[in-house]
Amino acid sequence: MSVLRLRSALSPLNSVRRYATASAQPISVTSTRSNASAPILGNIEASWKTLPAEEQYEVYQQLEQLQKKDWKELTLDEKKAAYFVAFGPHGPRAPVSEPGHGLKVFGGVAVAVLAAFGVLTYAKTFSAPPPHTMTPEYQEQMNEYMREQKMNPIHGVSSEGYKGKGMVQSK
């Protein structure tokens, strides 16, 4: 019983498949030496973008049939057209950016960096001076205070033979 249900469920699909395959006409391929599409194959690089999608598909199918023959029998135009359709700069392999785009990007980045430098310089001209604790004199006084208080006697300023800068950070 389940086989009959499965068959009845698939029968609409089979009828659609029968109609679709029955109406498809086989494409006969002849050499481009006598074919009417020889001008299209001869200049496929220039005319590919202007061809409608249906004609592009027909050319693709024609080239697919031609490639099944011996490659020594194909003309140079047919070989070039087959290579272009398979690997040419169209569809997903089309270049994303036009020539000179890298120069525009470099110029834009340079302008952005210069603008950021200008904003930083402008902000620094109106900023407050550094606090008095950042002066070298104050930091030297902090070193002396640390020695007097014997702060960090193992590795710090008050250790024996210490040769570091201590708290001095400013120049």
UniProtKB/TrEMBL annotation:
Stretches assigned to coiled coil: none
An annotated Gene Ontology molecular function: oxidoreductase activity
Domain of life: Eukaryota
Membrane topology of this protein: Single-pass membrane protein
Major localization class: mitochondrion
Alphabetical GO biological process terms: mitochondrial electron transport, cytochrome c to oxygen
InterPro entries documented for this protein: Cyt_c_oxidase_su4_fam, Cyt_c_oxidase_su4_sf
Protein name: Uncharacterized protein
Natural source organism: Kwoniella shandongensis
Lineage start: Eukaryota, Fungi, Dikarya, Basidiomycota, Agaricomycotina
